[in-house]
Amino acid sequence: MTDIDIAGVGVWSEYFSNWDEFCSVLAGGTAPQVTPLRPELIPAKERRRAPLGVKLAVEVMDQACRMSGLEPDKIATVFASVYGDMETTDYMCRTLDAAPRTVSPTRFHNSVHNAATGNWAIATRSHHSTNAISAFLHSTPMAFLEAAIQTIEEDLPVLVCVQELVSPAAAKPIYDSEQPFATALLLTPPACCASPLASVRFAVRNEKSDYPEAPQVPGADSSHNLGARLLPLLAALATPGTAALQLPVSEHSSLSLAVNVPAV
Amino acid sequence: MNEAIASQHSGLKPNDLQGCDLETWIGRVDSLDAISLPPQLAHMLSRDNQMAWLGLQQDGILESLTQLKKQIGADRIGVIMGTSTSSIGRTEEAYTRLLPSGLIREEYRQPEVYSLHAPGAFVSAATGLEGPSMTISTACSSSAKVFASAARWISHGLVDAVFVGGVDSLCMSVLYGFNSLELLSSSICRPFDRRRNGINIGEGCGYAILAREELMPDAEIALLGYGESSDAYHMSHPHPEGKGAVIAMDQALERSQIAANTIDYVNLHGTASQANDRIEAYALAQRFSRHTLASSTKSWTGHTLGAAGILEAVITLQALRHGLLPGTLNCEETDPDIAFGVLTQNVHKPIRNAMSNSFGFGGNNAVLVFGRIND
């Protein structure tokens, strides 16, 4: 059993553009008109050229960071996605088939899985470690676990971001995701942040588990968007009190989380 | 590999990859597409997984794993693979023959292969390891960072050992992508040479077993430390003063609790691009003296991108084991702009501590320090 804190959270979908709106939608309300995705951290010129995946990740990471009050250049990052930037993969594969010598250099360098965390480091001038991982259907809990272990072992705040985009038409038979969704959690060592959003006790158990049933939230359909598999944790964070969750980290093991959210 | 290094025999040759008309040199593994996967893994067919499978057949690594599984149990061994492009080659192929409806054909509907986790999923399935399985994809530092995550997993007690590795295979995305950035050399690559004019892309695979110290009382070599940093400068150009590289080297030395002047050999990232070699040498000169010998082995293998970290970690481990330090093949006339002299000829010299540098797109840096123990 190991203790960490969650010092900030960020979310974005087509139905809510920040944590307050997410909480309102979760409680059954409707979000106001969702503002277009426009991450202020990325300079306008870069923002125009940045793929949706980068803009989305940087936006939710920035939200989580601002909620915590910690300086963004004092934290490491772990980004995770099952299928990565499918929109860019689709562009690359179509261009390579049609006219390979016309591949755009900017789109190519943004095709790497660490494009989001690389752009984050550039935008925040952070020299800390940036990571980008995948663990197939376990990507979301695995990212949380990887970041939590790093938080403890390196005694450093770690921002974890999970994201899944819309699958391109050609790949729908493999994976059918209709809506983009991303969320970020800023994990900190205990007592690093004066008033964290929540404290979490985590452990890995050698027992198989399925994902717990997720609340129905428009814009974050966890049966289609694998990033939204973190919804039960987000729902726990939105509710003062304690909650226990078990999430699968592999075919054989699961991550158990005891979440404690202080009353405001 | 040891023979190729000793005889200075490069694996690079003029580009003959089917479907690619670029004038460059590549490091292609012969007959890779003829390798068949066992029936229980056939659903994960891709050139990248064929490369991973070929790697598993080398040097008795599977036998060592079987032994370790008996000792501690398959559930106490994790898997962390590094890759840049995973199995994107398979998706590229799928897009050349989409159905009239525009959909991917049945045979390419392989969810694990379409995921970035293809190498990790494949290696877990192929080895029967039951610990957590993850794939790191941070461009050209991917399979160096696997050591850092593995060290944390073990230190935290998540597992007692981690099977780490890296794999990348030739595909159109990287060949035409690096071509678009004007980074491909039209001839064989020449790291640190004044005539260097770009990189050669290669494919490769490597593995290592990282285990808790008590489990390996006879181990000759240990991972002493690692460093991970970001340039925070540009997606595809290194920081002009090598700031991120220096931070990663400092971190790795600090974790190793050794001074820079005790590093005997550095396996450089040394891609043979104008910028990388000049800036990496500048970064090295800020920390190391002439006591430290350094070289790039990219002119043997080409730049294997997501596999470069593990491949060069293995070369570094061999240098520690056998005392054969590779010279920088094809570096005939060192660039006067290079601030740190690199080895140009192979040298026989017993060494204690060695470092391996890996730098990638996104300004993603990883540095590993290995050392001889129990001498």
Any chance you could write out the topology, listing elements then pairs?
The complex is a heterodimer of chains A (264) and B (375).
Chain A lengths: L1 E11 L6 H8 L17 H6 L2 H17 L7 E5 L5 H13 L6 H5 L5 H10 L5 E5 L4 H16 L3 E7 L16 E8 L9 E8 L25 H7 L3 E8 L5 E8 L3
Parallel strand pairs in A: 2-3, 2-4
Antiparallel strand pairs in A: 1-5, 1-6, 4-5, 6-8, 7-8
Helix pairs in contact in A: 3-6
Chain B lengths: L1 H5 L6 E2 L10 E3 L19 H10 L4 H12 L4 E6 L5 H9 L14 H4 L3 H10 L5 E4 L5 H15 L4 E8 L3 H9 L20 E2 L1 E8 L9 E10 L12 H14 L8 E3 L6 H12 L7 E3 L2 H4 L6 H15 L1 E2 L21 E2 L4 E8 L3 E9 L3
Parallel strand pairs in B: 2-6, 3-4, 3-5, 9-10, 9-13
Antiparallel strand pairs in B: 1-2, 5-7, 8-14, 11-12, 13-14
Q: How would you explain this protein's 3D organization?
A:
- The complex is a heterodimer of chains A (264) and B (375).
- Chain A has 264 residues and is α+β, with helices and mostly antiparallel strands.
- Chain A is 31% helix and 23% strand.
- Chain A has eight helices and eight strands; from the N terminus they run βαααβαααβαβββαββ.
- Chain A has helices at 19-26, 44-49, 52-68, 86-98, 105-109, 115-124, 139-154, 231-237; strands at 2-12, 76-80, 130-134, 158-164, 181-188, 198-205, 241-248, 254-261.
- Chain A has an eight-stranded mixed β-sheet, sandwiched between helices.
- In chain A, a hairpin with a 5-residue loop joins strand 7 (241-248) and strand 8.
- In chain A, helix 3 (52-68) crosses helix 6.
- Chain A is globular, with a radius of gyration of 18 Å.
- Chain B is globular and about 60 Å long.
- Chain B has twelve helices and 14 strands.
- Chain B has 375 residues and is α/β, with parallel strands linked by helices.
- Chain B has helices at residues 2-6, 47-56, 61-72, 88-96, 111-114, 118-127, 142-156, 172-180, 243-256, 274-285, 298-301, 308-322; strands spanning 13-14, 25-27, 77-82, 133-136, 161-168, 201-202, 204-211, 221-230, 265-267, 293-295, 324-325, 347-348, 353-360, 364-372.
- At the A-B interface, helix 4, helix 5, helix 6, strand 3 and helix 7 of A face helix 4, helix 5, strand 4, helix 7 and helix 8 of B.
